[in-house]
Amino acid sequence: MQPAVRLAGRRRDPRTDVAAIEAVLDLVGSGATLSGLSLVTIADRAGVSRNSLYRRWKTKDELYLDVLDAINKPLPDLRRPTARDELIAHLAVLIERTLDNRASSMLRALLAEAAAFPELHRRYFDEIVTPRREASYQIIRRGIAAGEIRPDIDVALVNEVLVGPILARLGSGGTEGLDPVQTSRRIVDLVYAGVQAS
Amino acid sequence: MQPAVRLAGRRRDPRTDVAAIEAVLDLVGSGATLSGLSLVTIADRAGVSRNSLYRRWKTKDELYLDVLDAINKPLPDLRRPTARDELIAHLAVLIERTLDNRASSMLRALLAEAAAFPELHRRYFDEIVTPRREASYQIIRRGIAAGEIRPDIDVALVNEVLVGPILARLGSGGTEGLDPVQTSRRIVDLVYAGVQAS
DNA sequence: TCGGAACGCAACAGGCCTGTTCCGATATAC
DNA sequence: GTATATCGGAACAGGCCTGTTGCGTTCCGA
Question: Nearest residue on chain A to B159, judged by CA atoms?
């Protein structure tokens, strides 16, 4: 959306981009849907003229793609002495993400309207879900290689059991009051030990 | 919405109610949002006059409450010889529910717009989530009483780990191609045995 | 200093949705 | 048979959103 050649003229105010993205996050966090949000509402909330938004983004889809980028924080370093510690750290980061109500609402809205925003949905999977899932798989595989985790388990299934409780809470919106590290530790401990009476 | 006293006059066609509810499920299953759906669209899809819908439901909220009732199937009998078998049966029923794309889409849409439809959200929790969660807790507690499950585990956490993978798939919409019983068995087996190398 | 671009503000037509009101036709209870 | 309630179809005003255009103003690079 930048002009082809930048010769002269007034520069775009970068605060306008930020204000628009923040406005979308605020509004979606307050219960708005992606298709229901109007550019008028976004512009008003951002304190920006509707014209400035049209200048930057041809469609709402393009704006939403930038919103998705804005909430996609890089994966932190998860290296720890043991796979168990790495899994706890991995889940803790995931829980922290779900505690951000605006980001969680954005993802919920996105998943509910995946059919209406296929490109947004694809980017979500490719840039957010897949890298984190791969990181989780790597941790589990390293745990197997180190003799810490049983080699006969299904890596994907273990990952699902570990992150399932967190993603389920993300999906249903009940993520308040979770202590990231403590909750992660309890999940990992349970899945490590199993529930069967010996 | 029924008239106070039924004296005389033409009866309401019960097929109209069904057609409206089916129309909502179809449309939401195709990606529509609850707030985005219009009564015009619903009436057209149902092959019914908009007038008939207004006669039955004052607001869209009331219509959606009936839709929620329509997808709320009763809990089947889950009694089995062991808690493990009961848990497998319980999860299998849950997976079967998520395979119904229209019902899943309805729940996703509902959760994404919980703020805009508080009554609908409350009813969802009270009439769908809570009974199933309680049933799951009961199974786990019986397993503990029978000496089948460790008594020192947190019942709620075990439930979350078991249903988490399924609810997470429900939330993200990727439930196709799951065999209910086989998937349930693999989850329960994993959570029973744990992943730790002995 | 001067051209070019972004800025806010306003207006416009076109479309869709709502909520309500008519109408004539049809079905049902008393 | 008559009163009553439903049915489908149509119309209406009012509101909101879109996409575009125009305007005077502000900023910035050449």
Answer: A165
Tell me the shortest Cα–Cα distance from A192 to chain B, in angstroms: 5
Which residues does residue B149 pair with via DSSP β-bridges, in sequence order?
A196
Strand C atom within 7 Å of A9 CB:
yes
Average pLDDT for A155-162: 98
Q: What angle do CA B124, B126, B132 make, to 5 degrees?
A: 90
Q: How many domains are there within chain B?
A: 2
Looking up residue B142, the CATH number of its domain turns out to be 1.10.357.10
Shortest distance between the Cα of B87 and any Cα of chain A, in A, equals 13
| Interchain CB distance below 8 Å, A157 and B187 | yes
Which of B109, B154, B195 is opposite residue A192, by nearest beta carbon? B195
Torsion of CA A138, A140, A142, A147, to 10 degrees: -170
- What is the mean predicted confidence (pLDDT) over B150-167? 97
User: Is the same domain home to A64 and A106?
Assistant: no
CB nearest A171 (choices: B149, B151, B167): B167
Choose among B19, B70, B78: nearest CA to B43.
B19
Domain extent for A66 = 14-70
Output the domain CATH number for residue B31: 1.10.10.60
**What CA–CA distance (Å, rounded) separates B198 from B194?**
10
Closest among A20, A24, A25 to A46, alpha carbons compared: A20
pLDDT band at A57 (very low <50, low <70, confident <90, very high): very high
pLDDT in tens, B128-149: 999 999 999 999 999 999 999 9
Is 50 exceeded by the pLDDT of residue A4? Answer: no
pLDDT reported for residue B8: 73
| Residue B147 to residue A190, Cβ atoms within 8 A | no
pLDDT single digits (tens) B3-58: 545 667 788 899 999 999 999 999 999 989 999 999 999 999 999 999 999 999 98
Q: CB of residue A49 closer than 7 A to nucleic acid strand D? A: no
